[in-house]
Design brief:
Number of strands: 5
Shape: globular
CATH architecture: Beta Barrel
Radius of gyration: 24 Å
Strand content: 25-35%
CATH topology: OB fold (Dihydrolipoamide Acetyltransferase, E2P)
Structural class: alpha+beta
Number of domains: 1
Helix content: 10-25%
Order of helices and strands: HHEEEEE
CATH superfamily: Copper binding periplasmic protein CusF
CATH class: Mainly Beta
Strand order of the largest sheet: 1-2-3-5-4
Largest sheet: 5 strands, mixed, barrel
Length: 142
């Protein structure tokens, strides 16, 4: 077979394969569409960001009704973790060691999770750090 004919056949085969693979559903297409959720949370600020755009570290109480990216209510145990801040959220009156309440918005579809609101709690506020009990919460709405 002449080299030009081999090259043309290879190009046609590759083009057909590309078109076929572009029309196949991906794993992401099969993932459930989980609505964005907000969680009202409390915790203790462990560390403030060193620079703008960095997360704040907070030791938070358990989230009993936390829903994962598959739409399952799995809960989240108390832990210390970084939280990104939404645009306009200020930490100006917050210091490490402060007890805070905050709203954490999680949007699995956009792969985004940010604190939407944060405020300092009175120092005598009692926080409980423990394991999540997702079975103790009413079923998550879908």
């Amino acid at each position: 077979m002449p080299p030009q004919k081999i090259l043309r056949t290879a190009v046609l085969a590759l083009s057909a394969l590309t078109v076929f693979s572009c029309n196949r559903p991906t794993h992401a297409d099969k993932a459930p569409k989980v609505p964005a959720r907000s969680y009202e949370m409390r915790g203790i600020v462990s560390a403030l960001p060193e620079r703008s755009g960095q997360p704040v570290m907070i030791r938070h109480e358990a989230i009993h009704d936390f829903v994962d990216s598959f739409g399952e209510r799995v809960g989240m145990n108390a832990m210390t973790m970084p939280f990104d801040l939404a645009r306009g959220v200020s930490l100006s009156n917050i210091a490490p060691g402060d007890k805070v309440s905050f709203t954490w918005a999680v949007d699995w579809g956009k792969n985004d999770a940010r604190i939407q609101r944060i405020q300092k709690l009175p120092g005598e506020t009692v926080l409980v750090f423990g394991k999540a009990k997702p079975e103790a919460v009413a079923p998550a709405s879908r």
